[in-house]
Amino acid sequence: MATSPTTPSTTREESADSAARRKAIEQTLASMADVISPAQLTYFSNRSIAEVEALQEEVSAVVPAGNIVGLVMGGLIRLRDRTLPRDRAKSDVSALMRGLDMLPRHILPSTIYGTLFIGPAAVLAAYQKLLILTGKDPESAFPEGLWQFYLEFALREDSAHHTNETLGFHQALKNYNLNLSEVDQLAAWVCAVSQAYFQFDEWLFNEWRERVLLYLIDEAVAEANLGHKISFKRIPQAWAAQRPYRRGHDAQPDENFAQYRRRRFDNFFQSRLKLLPETQQQRLQAVYDQRALAELAVYQQQLSILATLEPDKYRENKRAIPLWQARVGIILKNRYYLMPAYHSDQIGRPVLFESQLPDSKFYPLQLDYNGSLYDLEGHALDVSRSGQVFQKDTKQLIGYLRPASFQAIRRQIAAIFEHADSAEAVAAGGLDDQLVSIRRVEQEQARKALSNETARQEIQAIKYAPVLINWDEQARNQPLAHIRQHKRGIGDHALTIFRTPESMVFDQSHIFFDGLWGMAVSEILTGEAVSWAAYFSSLPQPKPVSDPPYFLNFKPELALNEFNKVATVEVSAENDIVDMKTLDMLRKVLPKRHPDLKLTVNDVLVLYRCAFGLDYRPSPGLEDALFELNMQNKPETHEAHELIHTALAKAQQNNPSIVIPMDAMSARPQERLYPTTFRNPFTELWGHYQEASDTLERYYRDKTQKNWADFSAARRALLAQLNYFGQIMRAYKRVALEGGSTSTAMMKLLAHLPNSLLKLLDEIPQRVDILNEVLKGEEVFSNGGRVARSSSISRFISAKDDNYNKALVWGVLTDDNDVMHLSLRDFRPHVAALRSINRPDLAELIVQDYLDAFASGFNQFVQRLLDILNANATHSVEEVAA
Q1: Among 36, 127, 800, 850, fewest CB within 10 Å belongs to which?
Q2: pLDDT tens digit string along 125-171?
Q3: How many CB atoms lie within 10 A of CB 551?
Q4: Domain spans of the chain?
Q5: 161-184+311-341+407-562 under CATH 3.30.559.70, yes or no
């Protein structure tokens, strides 16, 4: 991969590349024609021959892979049904990507940074066109939603992780004066995680049920024309304001968190539901039952954390982890320890309890060499993700597995601490560090290259730990992107938890978690750990078990040094100086000046981001540092300086293309989110803003009627532009809220735009094309919103996909104290160049300077806009006469 802009080609080189590319496209078209003629495809696709030929041309242009495309198309044609077998799309897309790998690099299009533009999103887009051509149902190709499918192909690398932070555990220790040893603190987290394995399906059930029922009741209210009644206004927002993430004082003694949350929601929901007409109530229940039957189990499987990732060259394959094999991984003094998450006997066999009563009979289960599970009579068993045990042949429920007992966990943790204190120090650069630094596309080959059987066995062992807890304390006064770089397994895990002196940090694979769901899980785990900590504070110190703990050596392997290291190098910055009080005042004043003008916090942030480049100037300190770098007069420093100059020049451009992830859970939870690419179409808005600001200053200097009239006209024009901007933003959100499709109601929302702006209707997608949106965006702008009341979530950084065109990733979170936390991950080419000459400090200075300038500039913009809105005429009649 190139790490600098490509050198401009000569005309002859460009001509040769173009000819080679055209030849590859023609060969691909020929391969499709050999399989079936365009005329015959009109029968399969129900499209005109002109449309068929256009689709074939598009496929060939994106994936000019010759015979591979013809083979994939032929396979689809031979399928009799419109629906695809479950894993057919995965094998087809892998084949297309394999075909691309065989092509010469120079004939493929490149990004602005010289890196290959053809990636998973483009290949998936081409595959969708093949499905259309062959008359197949795209929904059947992606049963878990297109976003989930895309994640497993294109958000694989280490940078494709969300990270967030909670303060609740440490605050509880302090507030409740819980003088807990480190052994019991860690034991509290292990108990929380092991119980989460058993309850995660219930957490997902609650999430799915709440989202669907709230969506359906909104539909029912609209159908009954009851939206004007106060009981039915903003029902989802009303629930969000009181949605619990931990058991409260009103929890029943035998109620776990999932049951408590369900009871709280039922009370809330029923109080609204009973106010609906009986017809709407019955219809809502019928639709819910139908959707639950079709969607719920798929959703729970899709987002279960009881899974590990198996990387091949083109995608991540999720492999389920049986509950009775699940482990909790612990990292202490850089050494990995593994503990069973289930109740087991002294030799590690899972224990079956015949009932859920405290005094239930129990007995150990048997395992064979293949890892299958049997009861005492030799009957093969199945175990659900929540611990129910069934006879495989009769499907009869015979009992339950339970999470590991807290007594056993405390004693095992004590033994782990004892071992860590006495064992020799772990050397840096172990097998785990080697693997996590190798690109995911090469992981399969890297692991096959290992000849050491112990290394292979240790890799397999740690894969049974979906969650790792790194208990080695990290400093909190550093960006989350730095904290998450410490030991974190081998890249196959759903979640790694880190510890600082004041917080817990959660690093989450995007394949398992989206940003909002990840933060919810972090807060739930924090609440459960607090409950265990409070209980442990009343118990005597545990005694270590006599058996030594199970740990991994992870010695480095020379064979892995031959593999390419992770190509994406990043730095990160954070900032919390946004003036939320002034921003809140602005949002309250806007509708007073224009009744339809309602901008969210994120709308204002995105609006300013669109024009920030015009305002940005490097600080004097950064200018001095760049001057000193250039004065070194070495080839490598000169190259780095040129890359920085390119990056800063691009940063000062106006109106970037921004990918905004929008929550899609309300309409279809399994779709998870819809990414939409936004570029502010109202290019005159900033001219109107500057005109209003300038005319206001002119009025203050010379308070005449004419100057006031000029300012008033400029303000009205600015308000009109802001209103258009707000309507466009609401339109995009409506697309996500309605399941990816625009509605007639949304079209009506924009229908009163002036004729000169009606063309914007064509820019609102009729359906969110995930792949197209991902391809177009240059930056990611992800806002987690304001956390729920009493939530202890404090910071957040967003994930980056493996598309090298995405160079900046913005994260926004407002905590429970109304402090906005901004984060910015920087993957631009100069970062790697500066790292190579041992100047990461300068890369960090560049991104921090940029983020600080954004935050301070945003404050000035908000204050100035507020001044414009609040301005009143103060000149007197005498002054007018004069």
Answers
A1: 36
A2: 888 889 999 998 877 888 887 788 888 888 899 999 999 999 999 99
A3: 18
A4: 11-143, 161-184+311-341+407-562, 197-308, 343-402, 571-870
A5: yes
